[in-house]
Amino acid sequence: MSKSAVAKRYAIALFELARENDTLTTTRDDLTEIKAAWKQDADVQALFASPKLSLDKKKELIRTVFGSASPAVVNTIQLLVEKKRLHELPAIVDEFSALSNNAQGIAEATVYSTRALTDEERAHISSAFAQEVGKGSLNIHNVVDPSLIGGLRIQIGNRIYDNTLRSKLDRLKRNLIG
């Protein structure tokens, strides 16, 4: 079974459980925090991959470190350790987030700008573009890119809305040359 198929199966199972228990948002937040911690610390990854540490010790460590997360999340991570699939955790979190966002009418958006967006600007962008993609709201990830000179480039799924000064200058250059 491919890695993405494995991640999808675990994510669907966890999603169904969270939906039944009405804990989608909490579960998504827990998973996002755990994924960030996991990706940030290579030593932790090496520790869990080590055959020197017994399965029971790994499970105990998970309960200790991630004990504040929901029981479903802790149990899922323990199952991943047991099945030697903890390396799938980032993909599972991504799949779970996509399922959760879809169920809640949220689309993921990356907004490139020359400076960090304010909360008011985020809310305005969310309300303006959510309807464009048929969702209730956008979960905005802001990327600061000074090379844009001005304006915004918004990527939602495979759609890109580019209203940057850089793209306008590039179009003007192509029109003048060509």
Automatic annotation (TrEMBL):
Keywords tagged on the record: ATP synthesis, Cell membrane, CF(1), Hydrogen ion transport, Ion transport, Membrane, Transport
GO cellular component: plasma membrane; proton-transporting ATP synthase complex
Gene Ontology molecular function, alphabetical: proton-transporting ATP synthase activity, rotational mechanism
Subcellular location: Cell membrane; Membrane
Membrane topology summary: Peripheral membrane protein
InterPro entries: ATP_synth_OSCP/delta_N_sf, ATPase_OSCP/d_CS, ATPase_OSCP/dsu
One Pfam family named in its UniProt record: OSCP
Main location: membrane
N-terminal signal peptide: none
Family the entry assigns: Belongs to the ATPase delta chain family.
NCBIfam families: ATP_synt_delta (TIGR01145), PRK05758.2-4 (NF004403)
Functional summary from the UniProt entry: F(1)F(0) ATP synthase produces ATP from ADP in the presence of a proton or sodium gradient. F-type ATPases consist of two structural domains, F(1) containing the extramembraneous catalytic core and F(0) containing the membrane proton channel, linked together by a central stalk and a peripheral stalk. During catalysis, ATP synthesis in the catalytic domain of F(1) is coupled via a rotary mechanism of the central stalk subunits to proton translocation. This protein is part of the stalk that links CF(0) to CF(1). It either transmits conformational changes from CF(0) to CF(1) or is implicated in proton conduction.
Name this polypeptide is given: ATP synthase subunit delta
Organism: Chryseomicrobium excrementi
